[in-house]
Design a protein that fits this description.
219 residues; alpha+beta; two-stranded antiparallel ribbon; 4 helices; 19% helix
């Protein structure tokens, strides 16, 4: 049974792309429901190393004051994606070092471009993301990162950090949004798809990865 308390075990990374995508899907499903209130330690473990402590005890806010952008709390959408990449041992140094605030998403995009695994939304044509792919949607400061875990016709199912629980704190949810093609490219719900990272084109640092126990029983 897969739930928030599933133990992580180490296995050899699958050589088959479909199996690798399944591993990523199961890892993503295993963190749905993690929040900063009732499962804070699990959340912190997923977010990875940081100098000090993650600011999860207050809601995330971003606003301007005297011409400067001020943030409170922490937005976790890209950090959750990083945590999932860390489990499958993506060979990106920033994943394993103390987090530098403000670098997530842009660093992943540049890493993907460098390894020829970035798919630009505006030029994607009929291409769509697959299970385990890392999407970037939105514009300006309203950028969001998520992991695709499946489709129901034109509805993408994803696992998203940066969500809000009943008391306003960060949490991880399974989300559904409609894939809409417009003249300037695809949209996911109301947000423009800037592009996505093909999971199977990423480089990995070693032969073993982490997965929830009994992962192979998840269909």
């Amino acid at each position: 049974m897969l739930d928030l308390n599933s133990n992580l075990i180490e296995i050899a990374r699958p050589n088959n792309q479909d199996a690798l995508r399944q591993v990523m899907l199961v890892n993503a499903l295993s963190i749905v429901g993690v929040d900063a209130n009732t499962s804070k330690s699990k959340f912190e473990q997923l977010l990875g190393p940081v100098n000090g402590r993650w600011d999860l005890d207050r809601p995330f806010k971003c606003y301007q004051s005297n011409g400067r952008w001020i943030t409170e709390g922490v937005s976790t959408c890209a950090l959750v994606c990083r945590g999932l990449w860390r489990r499958i041992k993506v060979d990106m140094n920033a994943l394993y070092n103390n987090y530098v605030f403000g670098t997530a998403i842009s660093a992943e995009k540049q890493f993907a471009i460098m390894h020829n695994t970035w798919i630009e939304g505006q030029t994607a044509g009929s291409l769509i993301p697959s299970n385990g792919d890392y999407l970037i949607i939105g514009n300006n400061i309203n950028i969001h990162a998520l992991i695709c875990i499946g489709w129901n016709k034109d509805i993408m199912i994803s696992v998203d950090g940066g969500q809000i629980d009943s008391i306003g704190l960060q949490c991880i949810k399974q989300c559904e949004r409609r894939w809409i093609i417009k003249s300037d490219g695809p949209y996911l719900g109301t947000r423009k798809v800037l592009g996505w990272i093909n999971l199977c084109g990423l480089p990995f640092k070693d032969e073993n990865i982490l997965v929830p126990e009994h992962w192979e029983n998840v269909g």
